[in-house]
Every structure is written in structure tokens, then in C-alpha cells.
Amino acid sequence: MGQPAGVPRGSRLVSSASALMGVLVAAAIGVGIYALVNPNHGSFGAPWPAMSEVLAACAALVLLVGIQDRRRGGGSALLVVGVLLALAALALLAMVAFALSITMD
Q1: How much of the chain, in percent, has pLDDT values that exceed 90?
Q2: Cβ-contact 64, 21 below 8 angstroms
Q3: N or C, which terminus of the chain has less Cβ within 10 Å?
Q4: What b/e sequence results for 58-92 when a residue is b if at least 16 CB atoms lie within 10 Å of its CB, and e otherwise?
Q5: pLDDT at 4 exceeding the cut of 70
Q6: DSSP readout, 32-78?
Q7: Spatial distance between the Cα atoms of 62 and 49, rounded to a whole number of angstroms
Q8: Can you tell me the distance from the alpha carbon of 100 to that of 88, in angstroms, rounded to the nearest whole number?
Q9: What is the DSSP-derived secondary structure letter of residue 6?
Q10: How many angstroms separate the CA atoms of 64 and 103, rounded?
């Protein structure tokens, strides 16, 4: 039950992290555009939309560095931190999108 010959060790982890980064970037772009348009004219008491975008950008940067480090044969600690940050950012983006979708009539 090992990996096939010729497949670098940890490539599944790198592939999964790359896919997660793609989902994160797409979600951040979508929520950012939705927050700018703000069709329901919702307002926040705190800068949650901006904070979610900043967290998503930081998570994507840490993921990128972690993926590059892992591909060069480094450890996976930075990659795991990036994955955890990405999951937190996706949760915050989902909360912001949900809050923006509530009609304020």
C-alpha cells in the first residue's frame, strides 16, 4: 500500500493543499465581489469582510510557501499551518457571505 514508483513522497499532501488553495482563492474573490456589491445593503459593526479577505490572503501565502518548501523536500509543518489557516479563512468567508445574504428590510 505504498505510493507508486516515481511519485515523490508527500505529493498527495501537496496536491490536496494546492486544491485547497484554489478553493480558498475562488471563495475569497467571490465573497469579496459580493461584499463590494452588497445587494442587501447589510452593514457590519466591525470590519469582518476585510478581516476575512486579509486572513485568506495570509493563508494563501503561507500555503504557497509551504507547498514550495514541501516540493523541495522540506518538512510539512508550514504546510499544515497553511491548511489550518485556510480552513479558518474559509469558515470566516462563509460567515461573512451568510451575513451579507440576510435581507435588511
Answers
A1: 36
A2: yes
A3: N
A4: ebbebbeebbebbeeeeebebbeebbebbeebbeb
A5: no
A6: HHHHHH-TT----SS-HHHHHHHHHHHHHHHHHHHHHHHHTT--SHH
A7: 20
A8: 18
A9: T
A10: 37
Question: Cell match 505510493: residue?
Answer: 3
Tell me: the pLDDT tens digits for 32-69?
888 888 777 777 666 778 888 999 999 999 999 999 98
d(CA 14, CA 67): 6
pTM for the complete prediction?
A: 0.80
Q: How far is CA 73 from the centre of its chain?
A: 23
Residue 12 CA to residue 20 CA, distance in Å, equals: 12
State the Cα–Cα distance between residues 26 and 91, nearest whole angstrom.
14
Q: Answer whether 11's CB lies under 8 Å from 3's CB.
A: yes
CA distances for 21 relative to 25, 87, 95, angstroms:
6, 10, 19
